[in-house]
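This section describes the prediction task in plain terms. A model, or a person checking by hand, is given the sequence of a single protein chain and must write out its three-dimensional structure as a string of tokens. No templates, partner chains or ligands are provided. The sample shown here is typical of the held-out split.
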Amino acid sequence: MIQSYSDHAANERTFLAWVRTGIAVIAFGFVIEKFNLFVLALARTAGLGNRVQLARLSGSLGRYEGLAFIAGGIALIVLAAVRFVRTAALIDDARTHTAKSVRAELIVSATLIVLIAGYSIYLAFD
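The expected answer:
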């Protein structure tokens, strides 16, 4: 039997949940990028009146927002891997460890919330 098996299993489940979240964020970034390309292609083929509105919808924020989501998802997966290895080492350590006051997961989650809110506001008011 593996010592502290339930702790290691919980650590692995948490790691896999963060990886799934990172993959979902990356996929959302690709969707935003593809939507932006679709809107630009539609703007080229549309009439002059619709072209201005479609070009505005795929403005500069739309170009970089998808890339920001893709980079954020990759950072999330890297952070999850670092956290997984660190936590596995701490589980095997015999000493008692205290939690840090600011957790990296909270910072990344807050960043993702700001990105999603910014893109939502951008789409709602444009």
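For orientation: The two ends are 59 Å apart (CA to CA).
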